[in-house]
Amino acid sequence: MAVTESAMAKEGLGKMEKLKALLHINDPGKWRTVVANAKNLLEDVGAEQLELEIVVNATAVNIFDATDQEGNQVMRRLFLEAIRDLAQQDVKIVACRNSLKANAVHEDGVPDFVNIVPVAITRLVVRQTEGYAYVKP
């Protein structure tokens, strides 16, 4: 009988700390992949065995801009719903204040399930020193 990576990971998780993962997105065209990666990881490992954080910077923060009329609003709304669903499963969503400012996204319009940090690169580095695996789709 073949043992899958997933089965080995789950067996090993019973004996160790939770898995810690950072998904980094700076390209708005990667939202579909980031959301899929997060959902797949949650489904495979389970929320109780995972600390997952999505760090958003550069132009990817534009998804939080309610005044943006250039993009596809239907897709934006669908991705925001998917991101909200992830946040409800204890996935931390973190946006970079510098990127919000640089892209003229007003903080007061950012959804309440998004945490804002001063500088995304600092967050990424600190989390990696805390043992988070860095993933950039």
Explained architecture:
With 137 residues, this protein is an alpha/beta fold. The chain contains 5 helices and 5 strands. The protein has helices spanning 5-13, 31-45, 73-87, 97-102, 120-129; strands at 19-25, 50-56, 92-96, 114-117, 133-135. Strands 4-3-2-1-5 form a 5-stranded parallel beta sheet, with helices on both faces. β1 (19-25), α2 (31-45) and β2 form a beta-alpha-beta unit. α2 packs parallel to α3 (73-87). The longest helix is centred in the first third of the chain and has 15 residues, at 31-45. It is globular, with a radius of gyration of 16 Å. The model has no long low-confidence stretch (mean pLDDT 91).
Number of helices: 5
Largest sheet: 5 strands, parallel
SSE string: HEHEHEHEHE
**Class derived from helix and strand content:** alpha/beta
The parts where pLDDT drops under 50 for at least 5 residues are none
Helix content: 40-55%
Kindly report the spatial arrangement of strands forming the biggest sheet: 4-3-2-1-5
N-end to C-end Cα span: 32 Å
Total beta strands = 5
Q: Beta-strand percentage?
A: 15-25%
* Mean of pLDDT: 91
Shape assignment? globular
**Rounded radius of gyration (Å):** 16 Å
List keywords for this structure.
137 residues, alpha/beta, five-stranded parallel β-sheet, 5 helices, 5 strands, 19% strand
